[in-house]
Design brief:
267 residues; alpha+beta; 6-stranded mixed beta sheet; 6 helices; 21% helix
Amino acid sequence: MPDDPKPEGAAAPDSGKEPAASSGAQQPAPQPAQPQSEGAPPAPGEEKPAAAPAAPAPPAAPAAAAPQKATAAAGTRPPAAAAGAAKPAAAAAPKAPAVMAATPWESELTQALKEEFGEQILEFSSYVGQNFLVAKPDAAIPILESLKENHDFDYLVDVTAVHWPEKPEPFEIVYVIYSFARNERIRMKIRIPEGYKPHTAVGVHLTANWLEREVYDMFGVEFEGHPDMRRILLPEEWETFPLRKENSILKMDQHWVQENLGIESGQ
């Protein structure tokens, strides 16, 4: 049979090689290589491409303070300040002074004193286990005498004072009395106005001598009938009474300090 005519444009087969198909079959045109999708396995016989180098890590973010510093250097406020930075919380108001929660004091001693002095004693109270009575100023010395002679309170431990400038009777004189026989301590208080001179207790208790002088030295309260009413801690030339509330600790007698100690200030 005669050979089929060769299609026009077909390439002649190489000599010595078998044709890929029968002489009458037409070979398909070669297809261009398709790129492999990422992660797809390579075709058989192909070499696996080398792995792409890892992407470099992004640079570390600059510190938060850096932009603000740059902004401030440029003459503008940082965003937080421009928007209005949060203000610190206002300081809490000081607490009001605690009210003295005293309870009534009732005993054989209070009953006996009520019967003896009646309305001269204004109050019998107890505060955190400390018993006290409040008396009228003129009754102070008779009460001390009765406590000593009739109830064994024979030791005057202390005489002190408290200054309440806002009260109509700004001074409170406090007598602390102790009984060795009873092993009991009580207090007696009297309230006096400015300029009032309570009578001295030296005739009942000799210890009142120095104790009343200290009250005078610190508060300026004088005791009527005291045998030696003068300062005991501060120099006689000192011009103020340090424990009065109107006398600031920063405004003591600077003149005396400068003249007698040779220094500018005692503070």
